[in-house]
Predict the structure.
Amino acid sequence: MNDLRTFLDEIRRNDPQQLLTISEKTDKDYLPTGLALELEKRGKAPILLFEDLQGFGNMKLVANLFASRERMARSVGVQADDFFNKLSGCLDALLPAEHVSDGPVHEVIWLGSQADLTKLPIPRHFSEDAGPYITAGMVAARDPDTGVGNLAYARLQVKGPRLLGASLHSRQHLWDYFQRAQKAGKDLPVAVVIGAHPAVMLAAAAKMGMDEDEYDLAGALMGRPLELCRARTVDVNVPAHAEIVVEGCLLADTFEKEGPFGEYTGYATGRSTNNVLRVTAITMRESPIFVDIVPGNSSEHLILGGMSKQAWVHKRMKEALPFFMDFHYPPSGTHFHAFVRINKTAEGQPQQAAQLMFGLDHYLKLVIVVDSDINPASESDVLWAMATRMQADKDVAIIPNSLCNMLDPSSRDGVGAKMMVDATGSMKASFSRLTIPPETRQIVAQLLKGN
Ligand code: MN
């Protein structure tokens, strides 16, 4: 079965150090964020499973599923290095979902006034947030004209037992559906899916065509069709094995302040489309698992949010530049920094690579280009390359007045500067690193076995 529970069982069985179970009685608020961020400082990224939440009976909470690139890749059956290729391949080979009459997602049904968001363990994440937030809520909806399905994340603020504030801040397909429904004077029926197989959560973060359904990408990523059933009070499909679904409508004529909320920049922001979602039903499995995506500039939020765009950029860099090897977006730079590794065969290539990166990804503010012997995923390696292979008067260039991301607090209304740094060695001089003889490295490995 391709659902969240099976995935967690597999992790527990095959890779138990990837799962940190908190069996003590704990509060739902601030702890998922607090624990994930402290572990991140210590270089650790386990899945967090809260088993005993004060006041929530047999409901559990899982956070930090996507805090590790390796785990994200393995959840769809590949190694981290192959993840971008896997995603690109699946985008070209969608696997249509399978419709079933019903599923475990309807084991428990709260209708009308029974539906109560305050009975779900929806946490507060940062002191600066306006309230508790559903951060892993995938909003399923259907195109008001064509009926094609869409699945996309929206941040959802709990405002009352049956009221959510929503920001459709990425202004993509869901935003477009809402605009068209609104123009026709209609509310947009939606179902918020919380907790599903990681492939579904990855698909919801992907960018696809307007006529394509994210559920079909989930199927391709899992290698078998995703089972869907109809929600109870709205004409929207939901995964039959989802943990929790909140059904309702995005209201056409009501707007209300939503936020502030801790965003990926590491700051709280009140920028929002200020939508309102009125809840009509909540359905769930027995003993449901509430899923939380750690927000702010956590690894999880940055990895999941950046994955789709980075795959797109990676593919185009590969196609355009034969000397391009790979890149890494360090979490410290939110989505604004990238370290690019090239196999340099001519002067000027680092500048070409950097300019193409800026052209493909307008969020980027800083691109540092390094040689093939530098690991772009290691910040200290990249800074060492800057320290020893770069002269600022000739290796740094600044492009002014460029489009950037609105959430960058230092930008002027979405316009800012780009900086490219050529931290590659000159073709003339020798830049070979110090090395340890291979025999000694073998001995070292033996001495450190088990450490
Ligand atoms: Mn879409």
Remarks:
- The mean pLDDT is 96.
- The CA atoms of residues 25 and 52 lie 5 Å apart.
- The chain has twelve helices and 23 strands.
